[in-house]
Amino acid sequence: MPVKKLTLPIALGCVALVSACNREPEVYTYTEIVKNPPRESRAMPGMESDHAGQPMPAGPMRAGPLTVEPVPENLPEGHPPLDAAGMPDPGGMRGREGEVPPAAGAEGIVWTVPDGWEERPASGMRAAVFAPDGAEGAVATLIVLPLNSGSLQSNVDRWRRQVGLPPGDGSTIGTREGALTFTWVDLLEEARAAGSSQATLAAVYETGGRRLFLKFMGPVDEVAAHADGFLELARSLMVEGGTP
Q1: Domain limits of the chain?
Q2: Which segments of the chain have a pLDDT < 50?
Q3: N or C: which end of the chain has fewer CB within 10 A?
């Protein structure tokens, strides 16, 4: 009797197993629906939310780095006025020089300020600022950048655009000798002939793994009147100790 009781379930189990093995497998298809929870503002106290629910600082916003040509119509409200070179006007920055520290990179570079010129406080990208006494809107700036800061022609073409000239053919670029040999860029006569109100003279140096841009920009008549003084300034630039 015990044997019969055990045999019957085993037999039934085998029949069931065989039946299951011969059955076609069933295929199930699922469609997953994902619902995002409602966006909640995570604004902290003292913060406001924009139209997308993202937190925004309350009160006036500080402008970030400019990614467009720094001309008056592109400047944020409250920005210091620009001078003829497209940089904050030294007159508008007077009393605020401590807000923007002078640029690093001009260590060891020395110069002699010509008679009738003055050196003004440097700030931002400017390593030095110079202006002829009494000149309206004319300013010379010294900016120091690494050697990979764009080709000379690309920089010259940018200066040409600033005074309303098309890209050039290199005819306004030459070489001058001074304490350091430098590339001389003269856009004065071309700007005058084109009827431009602004003109530029510039000296470009390569020394100590750096590229120095000494640029004089302003009204055509002012640049013409002080061109000799600017050239004197350009010739005076040197590395302290006389090592190129």
Answers
A1: 79-94+101-239
A2: 1-20, 41-52, 56-57, 59-74, 84-85, 90-100, 244
A3: N
pLDDT digits (tens, 9 = 90+) for 73-132: 445 555 555 554 455 554 444 444 444 455 556 788 999 999 999 999 888 888 999 999
Alpha carbons 173 and 155: distance in angstroms, whole number: 12
Task: Provide the pLDDT for residue 230.
Answer: 98
Could you identify the residue written with the tokens 């950048």? Answer: 145
For 206, residues 6+ apart whose C-beta sits below 8 A from its C-beta are: 147, 212
